[in-house]
C-alpha cells in the first residue's frame, strides 16, 4: 500500500487516500467529508458531533493535506498527550506544548515545528494567549504558515454551556491577530443557545455549521431505583458486564466508599477525584486507560478529554446535575461504536444533595447568591428528574433536550425493551393544553396542575383563575398522574418549555393538533414486565474467544510500547478481526482501522495469533466429529 502525500494533495480523492493510508479506514463517517472539504477550502466551521462521532478526524486529516501547521486548542493535558500518542502511532508528525515539559524540551519541539516536521500542535488556551507564545506563533506564520485553528471542547466558551471556562472567551484574539486563518470549533454537546454563543464569542465568519445526530444507537439506557441494597446491585451489575467501565458519584466520600466495596469483591477498581494528589490521579488514570484496572470510580472531575474508546459501561450511581452533563458523561462509553450500557441509579435523596450544591452558587466577591444561575440550575435539575421518572423512550427525552426530533421506541432502552401498557390520554391532554392556553402561556407545570385540580392557592385566586372553565376539571386524577402527562407532552414535543430558568409552558403547532383532535396522545402506565435474554450462538461464542485472545495480544504489545491498548487497535477493529478471521497479511490489511503503518508494525503478530486460533478450532472440530462417529 503506497501513498505519495505530495501527489495525493492535487487529486479529488485525496481525503479518501489519506484516510486509508494514515488511519486505515475505507470511508468517512456521516458528515466528515463535507466538514473536511470546508476546512480545506479555508472556511470557518462549527461542528456539533457526539463523542465517538469522529470529531478529531475533522481537523487531523485536513492538517495532513494543507500546507503549514494546524493548531489544536485543547483544555486538558491528558487529551493532548493521548491524541499525540495516537497520531504518532499512525506515523503522523504531532506534538504538544504544555506545563509538563521542561524549557529545553519546549525549545526542542519548537525547533521541530519551525523545521516543518510537525503538522499538528496541541496547546492549552492559557498558554496560547501568553505574549511569548503569540510571538512564537507569529514566527511560525512567517516561516511555515498556520493552516487552521481547531478549538476543541468549544462549548467551554459559553456561559450557557455545562463547562464554562473564562479563558476560552479570550480566544477571539486569534481572529484579531491572525485574521486570514480559518477557525474550526468543535464540541460534543451544545443547545441552540450555546451554538449561537460559540459563533459570537469566537467571531466565526459565515461558518459551515454541522450538527450531527445526538442519537448514539449503540447505547443501552436504563434508570434503576437506588434502594437499600443498591451497592450490592451495583457490584452484581459490574460483575455481569464485561469490559472497562466508569462509575460516577457526586462526592469524594462516595467515590472512596464504592471503590473499596468493589475492591473487596475482587473487582479491579481505582478512585479519581479532586481530593487526590495530581500524581495519584495521573497514575490511576493511566492504569485505567492501559487496562491495568477495569473500573474507574470518579466524580465529574474525571473524563473530559479521556480518549479511551473501549469503555463498555458508564454507571451514574448518583444523580447528574443536568441532562447535558449526563449525555456527555455517559457518552464516554462506546466511543468505538460497539454496544455499551448507560445505567442511572435514581433516588430522591440525591435531589436534596444537588439542591444544596445549587445553593452554594455564590458570587466570589460579594458572597451573595447568584440568583439567575441558581434558577437555571434548578430547572436543569428538574429536567434530569423528568428523565429519570419518564415513561417515554429514553432517547426521545434526551434528543428532545437537544432539539432533535425522535419518534420513540428505540428498542435499546429500559422503557422500550420492557414496555408498559399504554392508555389513551388524549382528552386529559386537551384539558391540560387548554388550561395552558387559558392561563395565557405564562405559568409552569405545577401551576397548571393546581388549576386543573381546583387548588385554593392564593396566587390562583388573586389571578382569578378559579373563574376559568378549566379550573377543577382534573380533580379525578392525582398530581403525579397529571405530572406524568405533562412530562410526556414535553418529551414528545407536544408542548414547549422556556429554558431561561422559569420553565414556562408554551403551546406549539403540535399542541394545537392535539386540541383540534388531529393527534392522539398515548400515556405509558407504571407496570413493567420482565425482559428476556437470548443465548449466544456457537459462532458468536467462538468470535468472543478470539476477541479475548486478540485483546490479550493487544495489551501485551501496548505494555511493550508503554501506550494505551486502544492506540494499537480499537475494539471495533479487533471485533472485525475476530469475525472475519483474516489469515494473511493482505486480508488483514483490509480490516477497518488497519492503516499502512500499523499493518507493517503489528500485522504479522496478529495474523499469527488468528492462524493459531483457527488451527486449534479446526482440530477440536475434527476430534468432536471422530468421537461422534
Unreliable stretches (pLDDT < 50, length at least 5) are: 527-536
Looking at the structure, the CATH topology of the largest domain is Rossmann fold
Oligomer: single chain
**CATH hierarchy, class of the largest domain:** Alpha Beta
Class from helix and strand fractions: alpha/beta
CATH superfamily label of the largest domain: P-loop containing nucleotide triphosphate hydrolases
Number of domains: 4
Query: How far do the termini sit from each other?
Result: 48 Å
| Widest beta sheet: strand line-up | 3-4-2-5-6-1-7
Kindly provide the radius of gyration, computed on alpha-carbon positions and rounded to a whole number of angstroms. 27 Å
Helical stretch tally: 29
Please give the largest β-sheet: 7 strands, parallel
Strand content: 5-15%
CATH architecture of the largest domain: 3-Layer(aba) Sandwich
